[in-house]
Amino acid sequence: EQDGVDAAxxxxxxxxxxxxxxxxxxxxGVDVVVRFGAAVxxxxxxxxxxxxxxxxxxxxGLPAGAVTVCFDTTEADxxxxxxxxxxxxxxxxxxxxxxxxxxxxxxxxARIAGTVTGPAGWNHYQVHVxxxxxxxxxxxxxxxxxxxxxxxxxxxxTVSAVNDVNGATGLYGTDGHLTLAAGDDRTGIDITVPAx
Length: 196
Fold this sequence. Notes:
Elements: E1 13-21, E2 31-40, E3 43-50, E4 56-62, E5 65-72, E6 88-94, E7 99-101, E8 104-106, E9 110-117, E10 125-130, E11 136-140, E12 146-152, E13 155-163, E14 169-172, E15 177-180, E16 185-186, E17 191-192
């Protein structure tokens, strides 16, 4: 006969902060993604949140250790600058049962636009703009096969179109690499998806 199993739960860590512009105005609608743990099948575990009207966010239940906190501004409530605010990532360390603050001031972002072409009958693609720090911001491809991404990160990025069903990928240019500066408003960032 077995009576039961005793288990002790540990209180996870919490990250919180405020997202503002360079002029200290709060930014609402920023998607916050905290990635942690070993990558499984090429992806890390993550928890997400969104900034409120005062630019504040909070994510709890995190394990102890190093994490990456990414701020995706592509859906944020930003009217100025027209190229959006730069999406970015920060590193942080979490301790159990403790609250840690990660505030971020966002600078001017970049906007890119282009056309995605592929084999007959292709669909289910999204444009991804990724950085070496793990940031991955996305733009939807419209019915006319064009896309626009506002709030892109500044610096070296990889631009690709990825099929969310079968993983097929097309790259901008020959290798997907592009360097974006603050305030860039670039068109003609076209992507061709090869036949599978």
